[in-house]
Amino acid sequence: MLEITPSATDIVTTLQSAMTTATDPTAKMKLQVRVTRIAIEATGIRSFEVRALDGVALPAFTAGGHIEVHLASGLIRSYSLCSDPGERDRYVFAVLREDTGRGGSMALHDTVQEGDVLTISAPRNHFPLAGREARFHLLLAGGIGVTPMIAMISELERRGAPWRLHYCTRNLERTAFRDVLAPHIASGKVVLHHDNGDPAQSIDVKALLSSFEIGTHLYYCGPPGFMTACAAGLEPWPPHAVHREFFSGAGIQTDTSNDTPFEIKLRSTGQVLTVPADKSIVTVLGENGCNVETDCKEGYCGTCITRYRAGTPEHRDTVLSEKERKTYVMVCCARAKGLLELDL
């Protein structure tokens, strides 16, 4: 799940999904699930199918949703669900092995086996499909960024909604879910683009996005370079029609060298706390007995969304829209100018 600029998804839908943690009792639920199948989807990519230990239905999710996987090492990593949202008996997520990553993908690839039990969160969604107002859905995926698109396709097909996916990878061997996408490739709904490692051969995203038709909604997900290329072509597109999700906080381009201390105020008690330059709001809250749940700690999972009542926050997340930022803040990564009063 999931870095640069705030998500520009439909304001109402995004706000509802962003507030899941605060309003849905299942949002903080931890589930024990068994790994029932591991499959090689492409070079370096494995999918993991998990089911409830007791065989009961898993919590419902919507296309674009993700779960957090809690690993034995203490790592918590977010992964988009790629199974059909209509299926309640299983979740499927896919993982690209990154040897230079932070360890989560290697742990899943190297240590998790079929039959193992994992702890996961209930699904959350900060990358939802638009509703009936969308006449056409344009999906752009780079590499493993196709994962949430697979679930979206299942939902769009069920709706009978028109869509097209442009899927960009290095080569066919690195193209995941080829079997699932095969009928859609044949029908022209999915267009594959292979650059063979040469950016000059990649899709001309700017040309693809050069015009906007009323009723079209755009969704894109992929590695940082792909996301930057997509963002560069958005000038013709109104913010409400653009939806995006980054892999992780790696894409948040924030210089922390000039961070300075600031103060936060807890509305419930009036207590004022100082947040040093080298600590986050959520860390200071925890040190003072006010524990706010957070998973990614980098501003992309949405777990720590918190309402603020006064002050000027400096947002560093990739979840909140501009409208939402007038009311909410991600306390794992945000800072502030002056005093920030939190609704805690």
What features would you describe in this structure?
With 344 residues, the protein is an alpha/beta fold. The protein has three domains: 94 residues, Beta Barrel (Elongation Factor Tu (Ef-tu), domain 3); 123 residues, Nucleotide-binding domain of ferredoxin-NADP reductase (FNR) module (Rossmann fold, 3-Layer(aba) Sandwich), CATH 3.40.50; 81 residues, Beta-grasp domain (Ubiquitin-like (UB roll), Roll). 18% of the residues lie in helices and 30% in strands. The chain contains eight helices and 16 strands. The protein has a six-stranded antiparallel β-sheet, covered by helices on one side. The protein has a five-stranded parallel β-sheet with strand order 9-8-7-10-11, sandwiched between helices. Helix 5 links the parallel strand 8 and strand 9. It is globular, with a radius of gyration of 20 Å. The relative contact order is 0.17.
